[in-house]
Amino acid sequence: MSNPAGVRTPPLSKNESMTPEETNVNMEQNVNVEPENTGTEAPQAEVIAEAPQAEVIAEAPQTEVIAEAPQAEVIAEAPQAEVIAEAPQAEVIAEAPQAEVIAEAPQAEVTPEAVAEVPEKKEKRKKAVPAEPSADFDWDSIGKKHELYSADERKRLEDVYDQTLKAIQDHELIEGTVVTMTNREIVVNIGFKSDGVLMANEFRYNPDLKIGDKVEVYIENQEDTTGQLLLSHKKARILKSWERINTAYDKQEIIKGHVKSRTKGGLIVDVFGIEAFLPGSQIDVKPIRDYDVFVDKIMEFKVVKINHEYKNVVVSHKALIEDELEAQKAEIIKKLEKGQILEGTVKNITSYGVFIDLGGVDGLIHITDLSWGRINHPEEIVKLDQKISVVILDFDDNKKRIALGLKQLTPHPWDSLDPNLKVGDKVKGRVVVIADYGAFVEIASGVESLIHVSEMSWSQHLRTAHDFLKVGQEVEAVILTLDRDERKMSMGIKQLIPDPWNNIKEKYPLKSKHTAIVRNFTNFGIFVELEEGVDGLIHISDLSWAKKIKHPAEFTKIGENIEVMVLDVDVDNRRLSLGHKQLEENPWDVFESVFSVGSVHKGTIVSMNEKGGIVALPYGVEGFAPTRHLHKEDNTSAREEEILDFKVIEFSKENKKIILSHSKIHQDAAYNEKNKEAKAGQKKEKDTKKAVKKLKDNLEKTTLGDIESLANLKADMMAAEEKSRAPKTVASKEELPFDEPQAEEGETDEPQAE
After folding, report:
1. At residue 85, does pLDDT exceed 70?
2. What are the DSSP calls for 50-89, one per residue?
3. Cβ proximity of 277 and 315 under 8 Å
4. Which residues does 467 contact at the CB level (< 8 Å), separation at least 6?
């Protein structure tokens, strides 16, 4: 049976029973109400007085009125009672004292319109006419419970009902389904007894959200003070945001985020509930000047950096654009061919070249490929955003680089060069570039020639091209080499003037004297310039006769004039051998007689080294004294700047060398004194021998009278000899008679020895 009026009979409890009197009173309160605007006459409600338990209560608290709800059917075992209201018929069938309402029937919702109709129903109720009790009413069933379902059916239905609900806990992360959406609120069903309501601004990052989408929510409270289920999508996102961000970073996934605000150097982006930083340089491939235009926009990003220590996330929108551009580049490069002519737009100009946009891929025109002629800056040829035609010179598939050319679209200037031009011709041009090794001269548009620095002057003295030419200077030169195939040309300037070495022997004969300019120093001599293109060398040994020079800087300075004499001329190798000391006579011819070996001269020690000292002698000549010859008479060594007497112990005219000694002076003096004493002793001994010999010669003429005088002479000689060796006491004259026989005996033996 249906119950269109939405009137439900409240179920009775197990132990609840009613007396017959109470039943009769309740039955009398049931009324039949005619429906409005139905067009048919509703049958009268029959009230059975004998059925004490059947009861229909229109104003009971449990009665639910549904204005437009479908028919509700209430089945009981009590006798039948029909109540007709404004809605379609409502039948109450009661066959038992207790009226049982099926628990599984869904509750009807009370709407404000239905509640407003309840008073009208009360007014239209009419007093029910008592009905005759049913003859087949079972009065014994009153007070007994009757089951409509078996135990198995009830258990099955309870299991089905339990499956429609979920067991949830507070602070749990769960997935729900969007069931309703408004401008301010989103209703999410999580399978609980009630749905949760969330603010719409929690989903502003996802403008594509629709009913039926699955979303993650965080259960804050199953039931607040008002009985409402509290959910939060923002907290759920935060709980899983770092996991999602790490996954997106590892897999390079594209994520969406909401640009919240502008900050210094970029933008703040809400990604999964976490604030990430979008640098200004990562917004687009082109520089962005106004960041505010991106605020409150939903954009796609890639995570490019994560700092787990400080919980910082850096995202990039530029990376997505670059990926698309790279794909476009790869597609375009596949279609490129060398020599292909394309049209492009000047995208950027630098000092080294021009970048051309070929429609998704960029190419570079190097400054040398802009024009056949030499230019200082690419802006002389092209302008920004200018559309030009270029030719592909080369491209690299791996590096995605494309080399373009502009000058290759025009004929080469060498092709239009005068065919009658040949080696030896004089041409004029403009200096465009100067380097240390030479200068480049443009003789026609795009045709340049090199003038090497060695071809700028006949001088052998090394200089740079800056000393001869300047950029922009108009010069005249002679073509030295011309190679049309290799498109190379060299020229010279010095060929415009005569070569000074053509008549060098007439200008600079041997032994001729000249004045030269000191140009350069070397360890072995001085390079001087006699005139432009004529250089000579003065060897270090030809600078001075007397002074020994270690380095030319001790003798002169660069830029000074010096008098020279031509010693040798080598025309083939363009060399002149010059001398300075040859201007004077060789003083060593005179020094040979002045500083003869053994002569003593005063000198000053000007320097000292390990081997000895340099001594300055008179007449500007220098000598050398070895260390062992610098000891003084008191065994001390001579010092620098000390003036001493030196003896010449060696003189070499060929090697211009004088060896001196100070020690030799006092050594020779001591030797001479000793030698003198030795000679005096030898002379005295010689005199004694002469006297003895003379005595022997006159021995035969000796008489007895002479014996005494001879004895006295002998005694004097012996006394003198003993005195010279060791002082001894002279024997007295009384002892002489005893010695005479010995003396006589000795004298007699000497002739025998002879």
Report:
1. no
2. T-TT----SS-TT----SSPPP--EE-SSPPEEE--SSS-
3. yes
4. none
Question: Quick one: tokens of 312?
Answer: 């910082």
Query: With a threshold of 0.85, does the pTM exceed it?
Result: no
CA distances from 712 to 345, 370, 731, 733, 752 (A): 146, 135, 11, 9, 23
Q: Is 23 helix (H, G, I), strand (E, B) or coil?
A: helix
Taking alpha carbons only, the member of 53, 49, 44, 117 closest to residue 83 is 44
Q: CA torsion, points 129, 132, 136, 137, in degrees to nearest 10?
A: 60
Structure tokens at 216: 């993650």
Q: Token digits for 86? A: 């404004």
Strand, coil or helix: 112: helix
Kind of pairing between the strands at 196-199 and 90-93? unpaired
CB-CB neighbours of 180 under 10 Å: 12
Of these ranges, 136-150, 409-423, 428-442, 725-739, the one predicted with the greatest mean pLDDT is 428-442
Nearest CA-CA partner of 300 in 324, 318, 314:
318
Whether 453 shows a pLDDT value over 80: the answer reads: yes
Distances (CA, A) of 195 to 108, 168, 172, 186, 190: 18, 13, 15, 10, 7
Q: Which residues contact 296 (CB under 8 A, 6 or more apart)?
A: 258, 259, 260
Phi, psi of 184 (to 5 degrees): -110, -25
Residue 129's pLDDT is: 53
How far apart (Å, rounded) are the C-alpha atoms in residues 563 and 517? Answer: 9
pLDDT at position 315 is: 93
pLDDT in tens, 163-173: 666 667 777 88
Contact (CB, 8 A) for 612 and 657: no
Which residue is listed with tokens 């030419």?
A: 469
Q: How many CB atoms lie within 10 A of CB 613?
A: 25
Average pLDDT across the chain, whole number: 74
DSSP3 helix / strand / coil % (the chain, rounded to 5): 30, 30, 40
Nearest by Cα to 539 from 530, 552, 548, 529: 552
Rg (alpha carbons) of the chain, rounded to whole number: 70
In angstroms, what CA-CA distances link 243 with 22, 136, 255, 640? 68, 73, 13, 89
Contacts of residue 47, defined as CB under 8 A and 6 or more positions apart, other chains included, come to: 27, 28, 30, 81, 128, 129, 130, 131
Asked if 301 and 255 touch (Cβ cutoff 8 Å), the reply is: yes
